[in-house]
Design goal:
CATH class of chain A: Mainly Alpha
Strand content of chain A: under 5%
CATH superfamily of chain A: HPT domain
Largest sheet of chain A: none
Order of helices and strands of chain B: EHEHEHEHEH
CATH topology of chain B: Rossmann fold
Number of domains of chain A: 1
Largest interface: A-B, 20 and 20 residues
Distance between the termini of chain A: 25 Å
Number of helices of chain B: 5
Number of strands of chain A: 0
Distance between the termini of chain B: 68 Å
Radius of gyration of chain A: 15 Å
Oligomer: heterodimer
Helix content of chain A: over 70%
Strand content of chain B: 15-25%
CATH architecture of chain A: Up-down Bundle
Structural class of chain A: mainly alpha
Order of helices and strands of chain A: HHHHH
CATH architecture of chain B: 3-Layer(aba) Sandwich
CATH superfamily of chain B: Response regulator
Chain lengths: ~120, ~170
Amino acid sequence: MSQLTDLSYLRSLTGGANDKMIKYIRMFLTGAPISMQQMDLYLVSKDYSGLRQTAHALKPQLGYFGAKGSEELVKEIERLSGDQVDVDRIPGLLESFRKQYDIISTELEASLKELEK
Amino acid sequence: MSNKTLVYIVDDEPLQRELLKDHLSKMPAYEIHDFPTGEECLAAAKVRQPEIVFMDYNLNSQVKDAMDGIDALKELKNIYPELEVVMISGQDKIEVAVNTMKYGAFDYIVKGEGAFLRAEKAIFNIYRYKKMAGSASRYKKLMVLFGIGMLLMIILVIFLQTKGYIRSSPGWV
């Protein structure tokens, strides 16, 4: 199975500096679950403005780690909650993103181990 | 006091802030400080004026009632009209960019892979713009002085003519 993440952009941005890559991956792994939790809460309370805002903030971060497919998913969540159309699709999209994030975090944890060697 | 250019970065996303800060810190000419909210940036700017500010458009993903980027931009420009603010956003909508320019932003950068190079380029463009504005202002002053000089010369010639010290036509014609 092909990987969901690709660290080549981050590698070129940091000039291959492992310490910086480790720092950014750790920051993402700390921040992203909080954002997902926030999105769940916003969805439950039907606060679509908050949901759009959180999805909007998370979206570019996924791109930095090469998770383009997930970036598109979050972009769609942002669009639907921003326009408040087809909001009944949002729970399914969030669920798909959660599953993808589980894979992303596993891949990034493995990358961290490699970088820390 | 250092001679470095003071740059402020305002973004509510820690990773985004850190990435831009690290990228710009590669250049030793900049002293960079970062803030998670517009309110904190404004408080710091009142104490020490930055030359350039990179401001996120949406600043309320963490703190819901936080000031947004446009309001922070307006306040900064109100305090320091000459300060250059570069807006950053995940939105690639043209109307968002136009809106920021309307309130005096120097440039608008869409978050993503090209954003960090664009930020570097924005600083370069700010310097180039300031240099050009300085040259234009010097040129304007020079033109005004030249105009005054010409006017004085005409007045002198008219005065000398009326007093009969000089003739309308030169003697050799």
